[in-house]
Amino acid sequence: MTIQDPRPDSLPRRVWESVQRDELPPQTDQGRMKLVMNNLVLHIHPSKVAKPTLKFTYTWGLGGLAILLMMILAVTGVMLMFVYTPTPDSAYNDMLALKTEVWFGQLIRNLHHWSGNLMIVVAFLHMLRVFYTGGFRPPREFTWVLGIVLLLLVVAANFTGYLLPWDQLAYWAVTVGTSLLDYVPLIGPAISRLILGGPEVGAPTLTNFFGLHVAIIPLTMMGIISFHIWRVRKDTLSIPRNLDDAPLTRVEKVTTVPHLVSIEFVFALVMVALILLWSAWIDAPLEEAANPDHSPNPAKAAWYFMGLQELLLHFHPVFGAIVVPGLALASLAILPYLRFDLDAEGIWFRSRKGRQTAKLGALVGLIATPTLVLLPDRPARTATQPANHYQQQLGTAGGPVADADSLLQAGATHLWRVGVRSPAERVHAAGSGVHSADGDRRGLSRREHGADVALGGALAWTAHSSHRFRGAGSSSWPGARQGWRSWVRPAG
Known about the structure:
By secondary structure, this protein is mostly helical. It has helices at about 10-20, 30-40, 55-60, 60-80, 90-100, 105-130, 140-160, 170-180, 190-195, 205-235, 255-280, 305-310, 315-335, 350-375, 385-395, 405-420, 425-430, 435-440, 445-465, 475-485; strands at about 50, 255. The protein has two domains: about 50-165 and about 200-280 and about 315-360, Cytochrome Bc1 Complex, Chain C (Up-down Bundle), CATH 1.20.810.10; about 385-485, no CATH class. α7 (about 140-160) runs antiparallel to α10, α17 (about 425-430) runs antiparallel to α19 and α17 (about 425-430) runs parallel beside α20 (about 475-485). The radius of gyration is 28 Å and the shape is globular. The termini are far apart.
């Protein structure tokens, strides 16, 4: 008995059916569900979703936007790898070549840069949305923890990519950022040296950051994202409710195709268009080539680490850089495992009181932030007043500081009195961290900045030339000395 070939007679049709086995477009709900289950991309969705979860103002599409940004970063990152060499001699020139020699090179870099920065914002807002709607409640506790890990990985991916242009902005931001690791008890200095490939930012650092940025962190993120999406699918989304609605006992469900997929597709098109417009209009920042011998005044960490840098101005580094962030992360991780009322799940801000508190907090923030920014500067000081202040605190013998030489001597005295214990403190003392940033916080003038930088320069200069601090990084003291020469003038 001969078995008939059930395939169509048309060869093109047989080829198409070998690739796409389901009917397109599907005509029935069963066909739509089957399409989702059999499609490589669509199968990350359930075949049906709760209809209330399609409400855009509940999720704001933040989770899907994060995945879209990850795809943009992967595509643009691979394209940039063809024209980038991770060496100090070539990295900056490659950035210039992207702008002047490579077709659409600047646009690709802009897309990669702004998508990476937006990824941090979107991931943070996504976690806020989950928090404020109670989406971390059982059985989604571990999904929340995975989200925290992904947020940290997104920050790490941005930070490792920050150094790759090898310009002044990147070099000194990474110098300030990595100096925080020295304050981690016991293992901090070892971790810092491992990441940097030595005692300071240099060619090994660039190689290490490149490997982390293009391989280790992306692969780790893709693995955790896959697990995170699978857990979201298995645990289902929380169901949005109005404040006075009773918990739903039965929820209407609709097929993923076309109800959810059509929304995702339109949202993705709109966001890609907006990102393209922004990238075409605003270039990614690029300053002059990295110069280890000249630090900007003040040197700033990357924008997502500025909060930590500000904490260092008010608290001991161990407390500001380790204890506060560590407690915050631990509190977020343990939050879903605490006992609480489950009736508020799916309700924005939980209750009327919660909504009032949120509105009050937003109002205070909108008023306080511009007010603090616009507050008048403090009265000007002379360039030698900070040194005199340090002399009074240290009980230094001799008269007040009157000129630049005395300012240097006061800084040296400060060094020998308090001691400098770690490379991070040397960098901060050199004016690239605490001194200059502290002057910026107080709203000091350009000349007043110079006084603080000069003190830092004195510290670093003496540290570099002394046997006691022979391990001082060679990149810290010349920059501080240059700042001292450039900004400080004898008091008149």
